[in-house]
Please model this.
Amino acid sequence: MTTPEVTLLPEAAQEPRTLNSLMRGATRWESGLVVLFVISLIYGWWVSPYFLNTETFFFAGLNFGEIAIMALPMTLIIITGEIDLSVASMLGLSASTLGYLFMHGWNIWPAMGICLLVGVVGGALNGFLVTRLGLPSIAVTIGTLTLYRGIALIVLGSNTAVGFPAWTQKLSLPIGSTHIAYDFAIFVVLALIFGVVLHMTPVGRSIYAIGLQPETAYFSGVISGFLCAFAGILYTFQQASSASDTGVGLELNVVAIALFGGVSIFGGRGTIFGVFVSVAIFASLQSSLTAINVSGQAQSIVTGCLLLLSVLIPNISESVTRVRTLLRRRTSEAS
Amino acid sequence: MIEQPVTTPPAGASLVTKILRFRELAIVVAIVLVFVLTYFKNSSFASTASIQQMLSGPSIIIMLAVGETLVIVTRNVDLSVGSVLGLSAYLVGDLFVHYPHLPVVVALLAGLLIGLACGVVNGVIVAYARVPALVVTLGMLYIIRGIDAIVVNGVQIQPSQIPQSFVNLGAGSIIGIPTLFWIAAAAVALVGYVMRTFRPARELYAIGSNPEAAVLAGVRVPRRVFSAFAISGALAGLGGALWLAEFATVASTAGSGYELNVVAAVVVGGVAIFGGSGTVLGAALGALLLNTIDQALVASRVSSFWNQAVAGLLLLVAIAFDRYVSLRAEKILRVEGAHRDNA
Model:
């Protein structure tokens, strides 16, 4: 850092920040994201003339749908000061359960119902361990990450379930004659619901308050389980197959998207709008980098850099403000 | 000798020591229990080959867990260890491709330095830019993995490119115990001793128990946290070199997903995820236990599909157990404190 003399002042770090300045900081981050999104679109258009068409939009929606859907409850959970690393395993468990039941002759609808139930139970278990037993969520959900993936393995083993009803394959096509992916449409609807509930209702606003956190953390866990199971069903239908390793490793992508969207890892701060734009940026960058043949693994450099910047930029601007205050104080003392 | 003022050691300190010893003992008992039960089902579980596998299997995870313990003790976390391991394994392999006669020690040192470089970056950002470690190391996990993919560029390291002397390190044994395990045990002994004895290492615990109090007590928090990350990176890099010695083939996915296994081993080993307590030995035993259970399931012909579920359950039990013990300890301390106040 460029300001060692400032970092030596512990009281500067603990200066109470007014609600106003907090709000301003948050809005600034989201407007930065919007600017970045526009830049990423321009970049995409610059590297590939085919970038700005509806096809790209459709595939980006299709590829990012599940991650985006899981990022919504993740936002809720991180705002309550917890984290859920079991999301991708829950997606895998739901997909495996669906595959198992369908292979054993179940009708697809009740099978889907069981999957969602599995999601609710899994989410409730996370919530119970974290809020009722007071265990640290990061450790608990690393445990359930392993556990749920383990159950998925027991359920489906090394089998791959295929042959789902024909109508389910429609989910991997655009809606009607539009170029909107079903995943994307579902994500937008869910994001709207989350946004309205979180930002415009007393219940939502109280989630940011400290007092209600155990209860909200519990229900966020349940909602997360439910939506991850739902994402698992969607994913299965889109791939037209399900295996026990469905979605392995996605949990960190989901966390990355939420954090880049301006959700503070310490809880209490973050907006659905920010996460929405964050999803858009990741999807757009992925499309443009794929267009210029950058491999998926190499693309992770971009993910990592964005993540680092998301925490470093607010920090640097904070330091700059601190230096300014310090200088002002010094000059006023001198005069 | 300087005469020490006569004081009775505070009850809290001895109680904490007792609990930690008890915690390590509990894992040892669990390992022995798993071993004996499996032996009754399948006597080949006690064969030399099986026991050697039991020791060499978790060696690399133990290396990483030692470094991770230092970081977690300071109330941080290092999620980049799996990526660091992958990058180091490939680069050391690449070194052998260019210099086939490289001495083994130089190769190990190279791995260590590659890891150290990654750890230094983590440490600088976390300690001096004061940014949450989870976010930084998650970002570094992606960045290092991406760099790894670009460096590897689809060309894997093949066993034929690795000199026999280095492969022996991974497959060989000294007085019947795998060389890999000797190296891991040496790391545990060395770091474990340092963590018990020296002031800078003890300060890591102080930082983890109460960061603000540590600052007020004059602990140079940034410097200590930086060191913890640097050491964690270095050990992960060394782990990468050992990975190369063990498997002799490296793709760009080497070690991906390891970070969560390492954190799991550390937590099973009784290191508190929010810092301040836990030992390197405990973390190593945690890794040993998880691996022994894996092998026990295979030996008792339980389908290997059960491994993960059992590991997950064990992790949850370990966390719940730690919580229970710490609540009990708190209660005992409060009662003792009350007695002392009354006296």
About this structure: Chain B has one domain: 46-325. Confidence is low (pLDDT under 50) at residues 1-9 of chain B.
